[in-house]
Design brief:
Elements: H1 3-9, E1 15-16, E2 25-26, E3 38-53, E4 56-57, E5 63-79, E6 82-99, H2 104-110, H3 115-118, E7 127-136, E8 139-150, E9 154-166, E10 193-204, E11 207-218, E12 225-226, E13 230-241, E14 252-263, E15 266-268, E16 271-273, E17 278-292, E18 295-309, E19 312-327
Antiparallel strand pairs: 1-2, 3-4, 3-5, 3-19, 5-6, 6-7, 6-8, 8-9, 9-10, 10-11, 11-13, 12-15, 13-14, 14-17, 15-16, 17-18, 18-19
Amino acid sequence: MKLKQLIILTFLFINPLFPCDYCVVGLQQYYSSENQSSIRLDFRFQQLDGLIRGSNPIKSRDNLKASYSTSYLTYNYSFQQFGISATVPFTSKIQENKFTLDASSFLHFHHGDRSELAGTNNLTDSYIEKYSSNGIGDMVILARYTILQEMSSVFYKINIQAGSTIPTGSIDSRDEFKYLLHPHLQNGTGTSTLLFNVNGFLSEENRSVTASIMIGKPLNSKNKYQEGLGISYDLIYRHQFKPTFLSSESFITTNIGFLGKNIGIEKYNNIKIEDSGGKYIFGVVGTSFLVYENIIFEVNGQFPIYKNLNGTQSNEKLRILTSLMYLL
């Protein structure tokens, strides 16, 4: 198998954690797994619709619709078995709530300072609130070391990564009435998250398998809000094929697999937020192909196949992940 083919086969998807951008961003694939530097642009879209308690959607007149869009610009520098990457995210979050008087408990969790008004306002059946925030999110710095690598008829590699998020994103976004938005709608977190990752790659001829696990430990937040401990893992199978209309150097890969996420309970003023954290498993289907010489494009869809969340939370329905990478 040619080196360029190995490069494309190791080009994987983004792995963000549910339900927001800030909890622990799974960045184990924000680099080129081979020893080659790269510049990468990623775009992630998340669609949320309605509420869920545990693993069961809630049927109610109240409703929540939200979309989170994040663009990531990543530079990865590789030398021998070492590497370092820096990622800058640009976030756009939009949330719309339609609620009745029965929604006061949900408002208390989702709207920060405005929760004080939830039990006193006279709300109509069709009362709607909209919230949005835009800006730079928390940057990420990661260092990588390849502990094992073999290139023969069967190619395999094992990497470890460690790093941290940097609290560059704003935590002061407010609504039209100047009330502070809940941290799920903020661009940043106000604190750093320590990240550790192990990932492996195995390839033979036109087939490859990748596996990864990442742990994120948020530090205490100065703004009295603390994210939960995050663990993400994934297993992906990729198959390469070459349609007759492609050039000799080009080919397409299809990928299928799953990723899982365990999110710990969040805290506010050192008090646990019961409507936070839980477990999620997504099915993943996608494809990638060589656009031009060293330019690679990839698109993936993620669909939840298992949910077991704590309390009542927003219900994530779909993720679409696209990436464009230039190999230096």
